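User: Structure with zinc ion, tokens only please.
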Amino acid sequence: MFIAKVVAIVVIILVIVEAVKTMADSNELFSQIYQQKLAEQVHQGEFKNKIPKPNFLRGGEFCITSSYGDARSYNDILGFHNGIDIANKLGDLDTIITAPHDGIVTIRIVNGGECRVGERTIYYNGSLALELYNDTFKTVYLHTGSIKVANGSLVKQGQPIAKIGSNGCSIGNHLHYEIYKGSGDFNYRIENPDQYVSYKRC
Ligand SMILES: [Zn+2]
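Assistant:
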């Protein structure tokens, strides 16, 4: 009986180790495929509008509800807001996010869970994080509703990419927008999105 338990525990540990290794391998593989694809597009001169357009939301009037660097308290851990939150002043309309710049789409899975925003505890489902890359900029879009572009596809500035939503750790429809500037070798450094958007604080 004791031996059976030990064997069962060892088997479980091995399965977990293997699953973690597989995840790491697939991430590594994905990033290699992605970088190769990106390099090909750069080589072919596909990215013509590389700098993010300051006004890229359609279907309302927009303002910034939370700025870059605002103190954040998620799960009682004080953090730094690494993007800006933009909301529709006219309410929960069908707000379309268009691509601020040419780029390749990457869609990441964000696990569901529990988070606390101020006094509120939110239980949220898994969601998708949309990212757009070129060799000059990378931009990130969180809490979106339906995503209108496929993983790995090439999008052009102005093309609809998603709707604004309230998925993930969020208490109302808004877009969380992050900007990273590239250094030409697929390394990106975070920037304050304020200097790239025409939206003002609400
Ligand atoms: Zn945010």
